[in-house]
Amino acid sequence: MVELNPIVNMVLTVVCAVIASNGFWTWWMHRQDKNSATNRLLIGLAHDRIMTLGMQYIHQGSITADEYENFRTYLYEPYHDAGGNGSATKIMAEVDRLPIRSSSEDFKS
Predict the structure, then answer these.
(1) Could you give the CA distance from residue 23 to residue 99 in angstroms, rounded to a whole number?
(2) What distances in angstroms separate CA 13 from CA 17, 19, 20, one per listed residue?
(3) How many CA atoms lie within 13 A of 55 on its CB side?
(4) 11-23: per-residue pLDDT in tens?
(5) Which of 2, 10, 18, 103 has its CA 20 to 30 A from that of 29?
């Protein structure tokens, strides 16, 4: 049996460990899925919802803290992380500048 140089042996061990790791395969699958039809469809649906809701909030001139949190955390951030950008990012910037109103103001007559 051929004995490998200790440095080569260590490098091979590290390379094998990285390839076998869950993080590597997660990264690889994410890379493969980025342009799938399903991903593009989800980005498109999120874009439409961001544009519609965002324009509604901008037209109102304010947003509640709950609306803002839901809009940013559950809609815009996943959209952005999935690769979406452009006009929805501009809408998010406008929504970021809106004043936060109390949700109790919605119930006043």
Answers:
(1) 40
(2) 6, 10, 11
(3) 7
(4) 877 877 776 766 7
(5) 10
